[in-house]
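BUG: 3D viewer hangs when loading the predicted structure for this chain

Environment: internal workstation, default settings.
Expected: structure renders.
Actual: progress bar stalls at 90%.

Input used:
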Amino acid sequence: MSIFDKFSRKKSDSEKSEEIKVQEEKVEELLEEKTATENESNEQKKEGNYKKGTDFENYALSLFPEDAFSMVQRAISFDPLTGRRMEGCLNPDFKLRDKNTGAIFWVECKYRSHTNPDKSLTWCTYEKMMKYKDIREKTNLNVYIIIGLGGSPSDPAELFCFNLDDMKYSKMYQSVYMKYNIDKKEFYSLDNLNKRINH
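Structure tokens produced before the viewer hung:
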């Protein structure tokens, strides 16, 4: 093999090495772009879910009119002064007082745009359900879960409500959650709420 051939071969190997380096850089750039896009998409998804959750909370709160119920506490997930999102509050969404009897209770709001493929409804994670049960035990206050299904968060197609004490699982089959189906009317007292969910 001549010196020229060796030089050509070395040059060729060097060119191949450079091509590989360029390709690796392109792959890295594509991966960075993909990660950035996914992060942006996840952030948009979080913002969308946050808006849906807030819209449904406001809808659910409208079912407890101010002339019959006072709001003792509301879980805040963002700082109104800075607009920054806060880490999830462990308490349910609202703590309300029945103005007529003085009874205080919690309300947790969940919106689901659709059921699972098998028509079941996962209303929260098992861990969250246990946190709500822990709050129930520590505060000795009833926790009511209101679920909006379908339609939009500010006008769900169906509404379900149950006392957390009656729930053992975070996933309900259709035969179970349909027992808690209620009409979309305001509650006028805690007694009225209990009667409607125990019909």
